[in-house]
Design goal:
alpha/beta, seven-stranded parallel β-sheet, two-stranded antiparallel sheet, 18 helices, 9 strands, about 50% helix, globular, disordered N terminus, binds coproporphyrinogen I
C-alpha cells in the first residue's frame, strides 16, 4: 500500500516539505523558532487583549491570528502552531501559570505518588482547542507555507514538571542519573501523551511536527541516549504507526557530540542544531543521515549588520540546499529588531538560484 503522502512527496512545491522528503527544494526553506512572539508589536497587542499567555494559547481565533502574524510580515516557508510545550503537563493534571516576567510555574512531580496522580485518560481531548487552531491555520495560511505542529520532548517537559519552573534542572538531572523508577514512569507517560497529541495535530492539518528537547544538552552521553534520544525515537515510531510517512523534526538542543547518534537513530526527517555546531560538524554528523535545521545564532540576528550577512553566507554556502532548512539555533529574542529579520531573509534569498 502506498502511504498517504506518496503523491505529494513526488510533486510538492512546498520548499520545507521537499527538504523533509529528501528532495531539492524550489528555494531554501526558512522559518524561525519562536517566530510568533514578543519582538512583534502586533503579538504584544493581541497578548494584552487575551489577558494572559494561556488564554491566548487556548483561544483558537486569537492563536490562529498570532500563528499567521510573522507570515504576513516576512517571506517565510513555515507557520509554527502557537501553543506551548507545557500545555501537555497541564492536560495531564499539573497546575500551570505563567508569572509575569518570570516564566512558567508548575506543581511539582517528585515521587511515585505524584506520577500516579497524573492522568493519561482524556489528555488528547483536553487539548482540543489546539487542534481547532491547527485546522484554522491550515485553512488560512498561504499555500507555499508548511504548517508545523509541535510538542516538548519528554526529558525537557519532565524537567519543568520536576522543578516546577525553568530556572534549574538539578533535581531532574539527579532523578535521571539515579534512574528513579518514578522518573522512568513519568517519561513513559509523556511519550504516550505526546504520540496522541502529535497524531491529533497531524490529523487536524499539521504537515510536519517538531519535538523540542531544549535541555537535551544537560544529559551526559549514556543518559542522553536513554532519556532524550530513546523517548523521541519511540514518539516518532508511535506517530508513524498511526500515520505512515509522518514528517518529524527533532531538536536535541546543545547535544554536542551526541547529535550524530541522534541523527543516525531517532528516525527524524530533520534534526535541529544549536548555534555551537560548525558547518563542518553538521556535514559530518547530520547530513549523512537526514536534513539539518538551523543554526544562526539568535544574537547574530539581534546584532544585525554586515556580520549577519557574512554569517548567513557561511551557513548557506556550506550546506547542500536539498538538506537544509534555514533557521536559528534557538528562539528569536524579544529585543530583535524587525529590520534584522528582513535583512536575514533577504540575504538567504540572494543565494537562491545562485
Ligand atoms: O508572555 C508571553 O507572551 C509568553 C512568551 C511565550 C511564547 C511566545 C512562551 C512562554 N511560550 C511561547 C510560545 C511558544 N513556546 C511556541 C510557539 C510559537 C513559536 O515558536 O513561534 C513554542 C514552539 C514554544 C516552545 C517552548 N516553550 C519551549 C521549547 C523551545 C525553546 O524555546 O527552548 C520551551 C522550553 C517553552 C517553555 C516556556 N514557555 C514560555 C516560557 C517563558 C518558557 C520558559 C523558557 C525557559 O525556561 O527558558
Amino acid at each position: 500500500m502506498t502511504h498517504p503522502h506518496a503523491a505529494e512527496r513526488a510533486t510538492t512545491s512546498k520548499a520545507l516539505l521537499a527538504v523533509l522528503d529528501g528532495h531539492r527544494p524550489s528555494r531554501r526553506p526558512i522559518w524561525m523558532m519562536r517566530q510568533a512572539g514578543r519582538y512583534l508589536p502586533e503579538y504584544r497587542e493581541l497578548r494584552a487583549q487575551a489577558g494572559s499567555f494561556l488564554n491566548l494559547c487556548y483561544n483558537p481565533e486569537l492563536a490562529t491570528e498570532v500563528t499567521l502574524q510573522p507570515l504576513k510580515r516576512f517571506d517565510l516557508d513555515a507557520a509554527i502552531l502557537f501553543a506551548d510545550i507545557l500545555l501537555v503537563p497541564q492536560a495531564l493534571g499539573a497546575s500551570l501559570t505563567f508569572a509575569e516576567g518570570e516564566g512558567p510555574v508548575l506543581s511539582t512531580v517528585t515521587s511515585d505518588r505524584d506520577v500516579a496522580a497524573l492522568s493519561l485518560d482524556g489528555v488528547v481531548e483536553r487539548l482540543s482547542p489546539i487542534y481547532e487552531t491547527v485546522r484554522r491555520v491550515a485553512a488560512a495560511k498561504p499555500s507555499h507555507a508548511t504548517l508545523i505542529g509541535f510538542c516538548g520532548a519528554p526529558w525537557t517537559v519532565a524537567s519543568y514538571m520536576i522543578e516546577g519552573r525553568g530556572s534549574s534542572r538539578q533535581n531532574a538531572r539527579l532523578a535521571a542519573i539515579a534512574g528513579e523508577p518514578w522518573f522512568a514512569r513519568l517519561i513513559d507517560i509523556l511519550v504516550e501523551a505526546s504520540v496522541g497529541y502529535l497524531v491529533a495535530q497531524l490529523k487536524a492539518g499539521a504537515e510536519a511536527v517538531q519535538i523540542f528537547d531544549s535541555w537535551a544538552g544537560d544529559l551526559p552521553a549514556h543518559e542522553f541516549r536513554r532519556w532524550s534520544l530513546e523517548p523521541i525515537r519511540k514518539i516518532i515510531e508511535g506517530i508513524r504507526a498511526e500515520i505512515p510517512g509522518a514528517r518529524v523534526i527533532g531538536f536535541p538542543r546543545a547535544a554536542g557530540t551526541n547529535v550524530a547518534d541522534f541523527a543516525a537513530s531517532a528516525g527524524a526527517n530533520a534534526v535541529g542544531v544549536d548555534s555551537s555546531m560548525s558547518v563542518e560538524a553538521i556535514r559530518r554528523d547530520v547530513i549523512p543521515y537526514c536534513a539539518v535545521q538551523g543554526n544562526l545564532d539568535p544574537l547574530q540576528l539581534l546584532a544585525g549588520g554586515e556580520r549577519l550577512d557574512r554569517a548567513v553566507d557561511e551557513l548557506v554556502t556550506g550546506l547542500n540546499p536539498a538538506r537544509h532548512i534555514v533557521n536559528l539555533g534557538h528562539g528569536i529574542l524579544p529585543q530583535t529588531p524587525i529590520d534584522n529579520v528582513i535583512r536575514f531573509i533577504e540575504r538567504v534569498r540572494q543565494h537562491d538560484g545562485a
